[in-house]
Amino acid sequence: xxxxxxxxxxxxxxxxxxxxxxxxxxxxxxxxxxxxxxxxxxxxxxxxxxxxxxxxxxxxxxxxxxxxxxxxxxxxxxxxxxxxxxxxxxxxxxxxxxxxxxxxxxxxxxxxxxxxxxxxxxxxxxxxxxxxxxxxxxxxxxxxxxxxxxxxxxxxxxxxxxxxxxxxxxxxxxxxxxxxxxxxxxxxxxxxxxxxxxxxxxxxxxxxxxxxxxxxxxxxxxxxxxxxxxxxxxxxxxxxxxxxxxxxxxxxxxxxxxxxxxxxxxxxxxxxxxxxxxxxxxxxxxxxxxxxxxxxxxxxxxxxxxxxxxxx
Length: 312
Ligand code: CDT
Known about the structure:
By secondary structure, the chain is an alpha/beta fold. About 25% of the residues lie in helices and about 30% in strands.
């Protein structure tokens, strides 16, 4: 039986501070409609798809901060998105700021969900690798306060049986870490869905060229795909948000590591690829047959040690 999934990568253009959830959801629905016209079965939206990339703003008023978080999903604002996807028979994933009461306390996470074609949330992932810093940094040309607004996710990297294959999620900065893909790879992942918001400028190195930042993006997702024999669907929120530019360059990456679809704009744009999950098999059964070739007796430092310890 064919295991081809036609995927729509729903890159989003910028969302301004003043844009409501309704504006974001209307644009997401328009992308869903385009995906339906192109016969997609699964649509992938970016990280923090419902709001501007708010960690660039230093906020202290809890009410101002909470305004960027969802306390239930779906909620009144996102219900129309779930309804339209169900109407079209489309599965989808997207990211949002999640605020929850759990274990007697309040927690905020940078979260992505996986929703099946009947509108049921079948998977949730809370971002592990939070980049940036926890307090205002005057040395930076702009802020990246993910460590202030989010806790490190408590879900770990999970993969789910989904649409006849094995699908996992990660979020933005996670894509730069080989550990992300390997933990998913060890669960047999065949498609990794991820969204990103990546500034086009390095706030700590103004001289860093945008094309180098794009290269690092591509390098990370292509290596993750190849080294684990998996598809990677990597989708940006792009363009200029309140004067701050975000990279485009959403891609769909084949298990060979080759990019098979790439966004051309920094606006709302659908990229489409037929992803044959069986294309993973060759890599998983040969050069990256983990069971035959991995040497875990030599990998201990990876989980025993976080930072670098140089030899004496
Ligand atoms: N959203 C996110 O994780 N962005 C980071 C920016 C890193 S610079 C502090 C990324 O890895 O693209």
